[in-house]
Amino acid sequence: METPFAFGKIVADQHFTNRVTEVERLTNNFLMGANTIIISPRRWGKSSLVHHVAGLVQKNHPHIRFIFIDLFNVRTEAQFYQLLAKETLKAFSTKVDEILEQSRRFLGRFIPKITFSPGPDTDFSLSFDWEEIKKEPGEILFLAERLASARNMKAVICLDEFQNIAFFEDPLGFQKKLRANWQLLQHVSFCLFGSKRHMMMEVFNTPSMPFYKFGDVVFLEKISRDDWVTYLEKGFRLSGKSIDRKSCELIAQLADNHPYYVQQLAQLAWLRTSGMCAESIIHEAFESLVMQLSMLFHAATDGLSTTQVNFLKALIDGVEHFSARRNLEKYQLGTSANIQRIKQALVEKEIIDITQGSVQILDPLYAWWLKHFYWK
Ligand SMILES: Nc1ncnc2c1ncn2[C@@H]1O[C@H](COP(=O)(O)OP(=O)(O)O)[C@@H](O)[C@H]1O
Ligand SMILES: [Mg+2]
Question: How many A from CA of 132 to the centre of ligand 1?
C-alpha cells in the first residue's frame, strides 16, 4: 500500500501542501518572464515548489518550456554547459531526428558529438570540444533563446543547487559570462535556487556582483503548524487511519515544522498506527528516527573542532552573547575574535544559520540529539 507521506524526493500532487503565496508569486513571474531567485536551507521545499509551479504553468501554457538543470553533481563549467545544452534540446524536442537537426542548426560551428542510448526514451549524451566552448560559451547560453524564438515560444531555465557554482574554477568569471549573455535574452527567463543563504545572498544581493538585482528574491520559509495539521490529518484519514489535532501538532512541533522531517516523522508514526495514532506512538517514532540518524550526527560532530562543538553547547544552553567574557570562559570558546570564525565555519558547513543576528541550528533533530543524547 502506498503511504500517505513522502520525503527525500520532490513532492507533488497530494504530497504537496500549501505554499499558496509562493505558488502565486512564482506563477506570475514565470508568466511574465521575470527572473526569480529562491533561497532557503536544504530540505525546506525549493525544488518541490519550483517543479510544482512549473507543472501547473505547463498545463495551461504549453508555449512555455521549462528547462531543469540540477547542479547537485556538477563541479565544472564544462559539465554545466553540457547539461544546459542537453536539457535545452530535450525541452524542445523528444525525437532523435529533431534533436540532431536542432543541434546542427542552432549550435552553429561546434556541433557536439551526440550519442543516443538505445531504448524508448530519448536519452542521449553530448560531448563538445571543451576548448572551443570555453572561448565562446555564448552559443550554448543562447541556445534556449534561439530555439524558443524560432518557435515563438518562451522558456524558463530552472537552475537547482545554484550554490554549487562555488566549486567551479572561477565562479566569479563564470557569473560574469552568464550575466552578460543572459541579460540579452528576450524569450527566456530564469529561476535560480539554492541553499547556503549566506553565499546566495552574496551572489544576488551584493552591488558589485554580476547577479546583483537579477530578479525577484524569495526567501522560502518552513510550512506553518496549522498547515501541517490539516495536511497530516488528511493523510491519515484518506488512508483509513485517524489522528487528532493535538497529535498532529505534536508531529509538527517535534519536527520543528521542517518540511522533510514532518513528512518523515508522520510516515513513521503512520506505519506504527493501526487505527488511531496516539501521542505515545509519535514519541516512539521520533526516538527511533533520532536513533536512525544518530550515526550521521556522530559523524557530523566528529568533523567539528572542539571550539565549534563548545559553541553549539552554548547555543543549545540558550546563550546569546557568545563574546561575553563569562561565556568565553564557561564554554572555552577562545578569544572573542574567535567567535566570528566559529560562526563562519558552522554556517559554511550548513550546521547553523544566522538571521538578523540570531543563530539557529538548522537541523532540528540534530539540535535535539545534541541536547538529549550527546550531552546527556
Ligand atoms: N510544499 C510541500 N508540502 C509538503 N511537503 C513538502 C513540501 N515541500 C517540501 N516538502 C517535504 O520536504 C522534502 C524536501 O523538499 P525539497 O523540495 O527537496 O527541498 P529543497 O529543494 O529545498 O532541498 C520533500 O521531500 C517533502 O518531504
Ligand atoms: Mg532541492
Answer: 39
What is the atom index within ligand 1 of the atom nearest the CA of 160?
21
- 303-374: CATH number: 1.10.10
74 C-alpha to ligand 2 centroid (Å):
14
Residue 30 pLDDT exceeds 70: yes
Q: Where in the chain is the domain with CATH 1.10.10?
A: 303-374
Query: Cα angle at 140 between 136 and 141, to 5 degrees?
Result: 90
Output the pTM of the full model. 0.94
Please give the class, per CATH, of domain 225-298.
Answer: mainly alpha
Q: Cell 559553541, residue?
A: 311
Q: For residue range 55-91, list pLDDT tens digits in order.
A: 999 999 999 999 999 999 999 998 999 899 989 999 9
CATH of domain 19-219: 3.40.50.300
The tens digit of pLDDT for each residue in 169-217 reads: 999 999 999 999 998 899 999 999 999 888 999 999 999 999 999 999 9
